[in-house]
Amino acid sequence: MAEHIKIVEVGPRDGLQNEKQFVDTAVKIELVDRLAAAGFANVEAASFVSPKWVPQMADGAEVMAGIARRPGTIYSVLVPNLRGFEGAQAARADEVVIFGAASEAFSQRNINCSIAESIARFEPVAAAAKEAGMRLRGSISCALGCPYQGETPVAAVVDVAERLLRLGCDEIDVADTIGVGTAAQVGRVLRAVGQVADLGSQVSGHFHDTYGQALANILAALDCGVRIFHSSVAGLGGCPYAKGATGNVATEDVLYLLRGQGLHTGVDLDAVVDIGQWISERIGRPTSSRAGRALALKKAQ
């Protein structure tokens, strides 16, 4: 039996949130449904943030109401506060995602408070999620670098990981929000996080491909024992609050890599290639996935 790797598909939320033109709600619903049908056990479907800050995600409730839920699939939503959690709960989300930066400069610039204060703000959200029996995931942004302060201290990443674990997070994302990390750095950070969390079951790798390092970073994370990774179909994404951030690593590229490593994901690569071509057409620009492009051309011959 090949070892299983869990892929969290973040395209519908983290991928689309940075699109300038509003993506029709029906397209978002179809994207979530097609991804779930392709075999993803976890799809990040929407967010319940203020439309003032992320207008692309203003239709989160409509998206969650419109999807055809597949048994066994975890549908995740991002929430910034208790009000967002209440929206997520009303929308019957399976998992809520909270977040904190490992960079003091990023935290101060974007939400005007310290890292410690930002995590403390999520205490009522975490308590409510646990009381409701919902999964809780915590994302550590700028874990490998920050647009304002440069490289992030390893100790700061570990500190945020510990804080999120104390809140009761089931899973923690180590996120290279601006895609500056390299394989050696990934190894250092993850080995340190592994002192406070189980890398095989509690920690995920979330890599952006700004400098073309995402696949190398995934291999480094695999070597450390990480078995959960985030990716975005067609390489959709960016971060509206992180200057210079490009898309998440493309799901098609990750699946192609893992298949070559003899690892099992339970996801249909051919179906994901088709989805990547379809969503790229819908938003009017070519896919960012090199494997997706190559495989689509091969299928067309």
From TrEMBL:
Protein EC: 4.1.3.4
Family matches, as CDD domains: DRE_TIM_HMGL
Highest taxon, organism lineage: Bacteria
InterPro entries given in the database record: Aldolase_TIM, HMG_CoA_lyase_AS, HMGL, PYR_CT
Protein keywords: Lyase, Metal-binding
Molecular function GO terms recorded: lyase activity
Reactions it catalyzes: (3S)-3-hydroxy-3-methylglutaryl-CoA = acetoacetate + acetyl-CoA
Keyword Cytoplasm recorded: no
Transmembrane segments: none
Pathway(s) this gene product operates in, as recorded in its UniProt entry: Metabolic intermediate metabolism; (S)-3-hydroxy-3-methylglutaryl-CoA degradation; acetoacetate from (S)-3-hydroxy-3-methylglutaryl-CoA: step 1/1
Domain Pyruvate carboxyltransferase positions: 5-273
PANTHER family noted in UniProt: HYDROXYMETHYLGLUTARYL-COA LYASE
Family: Belongs to the HMG-CoA lyase family.
Protein name per the record: hydroxymethylglutaryl-CoA lyase
